[in-house]
Design brief:
44% helix; alpha/beta; Rossmann fold; single chain; binds 1,3-dihydroxyacetonephosphate; 3 domains; binds iron/sulfur cluster; globular; 344 residues
Length: 344
């Protein structure tokens, strides 16, 4: 039987033609001026949203930019937990998301009740949660982290609270496995037993499997690997490095914006990009000469692609949909987010 060719998802809005993009982009920019709004866009957003935005970045960069802006309105082109984080950091600003259904499968993998039950099993443990979580989960958390600072956050906790501190890390198991390896915890059986990982994952990154790495390595022996720590292949890539099978120089675990910074340093190289494929657009824009190869062409986050120019235009025109977090929850969730931002 012939191998099955995977199909790209069909439940995404149809592409806009160039003329529509020009007209809508002008409308959006005009409305943003009238509304005193800054437009923030994540690196995975569709190209026309990135092109119309004031600032494009990874989740940490967007959280920082939202907090630092003087604009009274933030039009957040990303997923819901990111807009919530912005609102928690800037309760005096009006945070808008163009589509309330833009969620995140990873954030959905743990809720506040589940986290409370987990904490009850390990009294006294410190909770580190990836920023891809709801505000309610953050309110039960001691430290948030992102892909770019997870290792730093865990090391900081050991420095502050002692190397034997019990830690609950979630919700992404691949990022947790990455932290275990990057900190050497994997080779320290006693302390390893005090680092607990929630078994959540992002459906997009979990789908980038070790086979994708093996295949693309064979097809592109000269290419470097840029791997988001959420990927299902990241553990294997680190094992290859540990066993000396691949040169550590060629493998880089990076946040989405970290990937752009890395490619800028060596602009004419080939890179296999193991993350959501929207990432190729901002890298290509920043470094046109780089040869970029998708690790898995199916790596597609339908939630990020729900944000379109017509919805962004409607959002700024009608001041919808406002993301505001309940005051009590926001107050509790602020501390772990501030810790994350200050650790950098
Ligand atoms: P970054 O923090 O690297 O932007 O990742 C966020 C995310 O949702 C990845 O899927
Ligand atoms: Fe969430 Fe995964 Fe989409 Fe990132 S790529 S927003 S983790 S579902």
């Amino acid at each position: 039987m012939a191998p099955q060719i995977p199909l790209l998802p069909t439940d995404v809005p149809p592409p806009l033609d160039p003329e529509q993009i020009t007209v809508l982009s002008e409308e959006v920019r005009d409305l943003a001026r009238q509304r005193d709004a800054i437009i923030l866009a994540h690196n995975y957003e569709v190209p026309e949203i990135q092109d119309v935005a004031d600032f494009i970045g990874d989740s940490l960069g967007l959280a920082r930019k939202g907090a630092a802006t003087d604009s009274s309105v933030i039009a957040f082109c990303g997923v819901h937990f990111m807009a919530e984080t912005s609102s928690i950091l800037s309760p005096e600003k009006q945070v808008l998301i163009p589509d309330l259904a833009a969620g995140c499968s990873l954030a959905d993998s743990i809720n506040a009740d589940q986290l409370r039950d987990w904490k009850a099993k390990y009294p006294g443990a410190i909770v580190v949660m990836y920023v891809n979580t709801s505000a309610e989960v953050k309110a039960e958390t001691d430290y948030c982290c992102t892909s770019s600072n997870a290792v730093k956050v865990v090391k900081h906790i050991w420095e502050e609270h002692g190397p034997d501190t019990e830690i609950l890390f979630g919700p992404d198991m691949w990022l947790g496995a990455f932290v275990e390896r990057a900190t050497g915890l994997k080779d320290d059986p006693e302390r390893h037993g005090r680092f607990h990982i929630w078994d959540g994952e992002c459906h997009v990154h979990a789908g980038i499997r070790p086979d994708d790495i093996t295949r693309t390595r064979e097809d592109n022996p000269e290419a470097e690997f840029l791997i988001h720590p959420e990927c299902g292949c990241s553990t294997q890539a680190m094992e290859y490095v540990a066993s000396g099978d691949i040169d550590p120089e060629g493998v880089h675990m990076l946040s989405t914006s970290g990937m752009i910074e890395h490619v800028e340093q060596n602009p004419e190289q080939s890179y296999v990009v193991a993350t959501e494929n929207g990432m190729l657009y901002p890298i290509r824009k920043a470094v046109p000469k780089a040869n970029l190869i998708e690790a898995n062409r199916m790596a597609f986050c339908k939630y990020m692609k729900m944000i379109t120019l017509p919805k962004l235009r409607d959002s700024l025109r009608d001041m919808k949909y406002e993301v505001r977090v309940d005051e009590d929850i926001a107050e509790k969730a602020l501390l772990p987010i501030e810790r994350m931002v200050s650790i950098g």
